[in-house]
Write a structure and sequence with these properties.
Largest sheet: 5 strands, antiparallel
Strand content: 15-25%
Number of domains: 3
Number of helices: 10
Number of strands: 8
Distance between the termini: 36 Å
Helix content: 55-70%
Length: about 270
Amino acid sequence: MIKLFFVFFLLLSVSYSQVINAIALVVNDDAITIYDIENKMNLLGVSKDEAIGQLVDEVLFKNLISENNISVDIFDVNTYLEKVATSNGMDLYTFKSIIKQKYKDYEAYEKNVKNNIIKQKLSDKLIRGNLKLANEVDLKIYYENNLNLFQAAKKIYVRKYASTSKKELLLVQTNPMLTSANVEQNDIILKQDELNSQLRFIINDTKINTFTAIFSSNKKYTTLLIRKKEDIKIIKFEDVRDRIFNIVMQDRERKYLKNFFDRLKLTANIRIVR
């Protein structure tokens, strides 16, 4: 009886495996399985139709990458990061050290950067000559309609934690009430116009009642708990003009690419298997 049950269970498992790995549809020459669909549904928390739509987009995107011979190397990554660092008043080394402190998995962050570069390279090829550049009027309209995005506090109230042990600060970040003889703490007020570019980037990127990434200062590891931001001021248009240009153009690119992919789906060879 036990042997029969084992055989039945084995056959059931094999049968289920065959079903889950069965092909649901084929997009051009790429197969999408039932497992792919269910995994995407669970991962994104979306419906079956939304998951299928996402998977079809991914296949078409991969096909375009191959057709246009697009690739990314370490030089592309460093150039991308260097631009981001420069826009925030930092050198590449300093910016990388902040990112490594902020993100536990730097390789995952770098992989995301590579994906962004690939998308940008593809976008550049598809969009070249097809997108209207934002002018001064466009930028000022966006600025006036989104002033909440361009604010900075003149005073920032923080609790500073410093230690020679990074591990101790990681424990503090999980429990701010924790006291340790190895961790110095004191309340201070920071002024925006007195901060260096590195610290300004860290603080403005951190929400109230949240810890900053751990960074090095005066030969010690340091983290700041942002307690309050006071005297919020609107940043002048001239100081954020380049940032607004990027935001507006990225939005235009996104809309153009969405329409492009919608048209591409209509011409793609999509066969539903089951």
